[in-house]
Design a protein that fits this description.
Layout: H1 2-28, E1 32-37, H2 42-51, E2 59-64, H3 71-77, E3 83-86, E4 89-93, H4 98-115
Parallel strand pairs: 1-2
Antiparallel strand pairs: 1-3, 3-4
Keywords: Electron transport, Transport
Organism: Balaenoptera acutorostrata
InterPro entries: Glutaredoxin-like, Glutaredoxin-like_YDR286C, Thioredoxin-like_sf
């Protein structure tokens, strides 16, 4: 009886650690959606509202282009915000294109599922 309990405990421990590892991996596997913005930016505020239903599928990173350290982004996007990059690649500008966002998120999620 003790042998069985010991093995069950080892199995439960192993399963628990595997579960934690998978949860941890899925957290870090979320894509990063970068929003290039400034204050004020009514179109950016509107875009964030449109993104609300998707917020559990990416990490939103906001970059204020008016800060001195972001002057290169300011020079590039000063007339185009909001601008979005997904995992460092340009995705869209001016408004959220929901179909484009959905397509790219699904693509990344499928790649992530296939890689597991």
């Amino acid at each position: 009886m003790l042998w069985f309990q010991g093995n069950s405990m080892q199995l439960a421990k192993h399963s628990f650690h595997r579960l934690l590892r998978n949860l941890s991996a899925s957290k870090t596997a979320l894509p990063v959606l970068t929003l290039f913005t400034k204050d004020p930016c009514p179109l950016c505020d509107e875009a964030k509202e449109v993104l609300e239903p998707y917020k559990n599928r990416f990490i939103l990173q906001e970059v204020d282009i008016t800060l001195p350290e972001n002057s290169a982004w300011y020079d590039r996007y000063k007339f185009d915000i909001p601008v979005f990059h997904l995992n460092g690649q340009f995705l869209m500008m001016h408004r959220v294109d929901v179909s484009k966002l959905e397509k790219q998120l699904q693509k990344l999620e499928q790649q992530g599922a296939g890689g597991s």
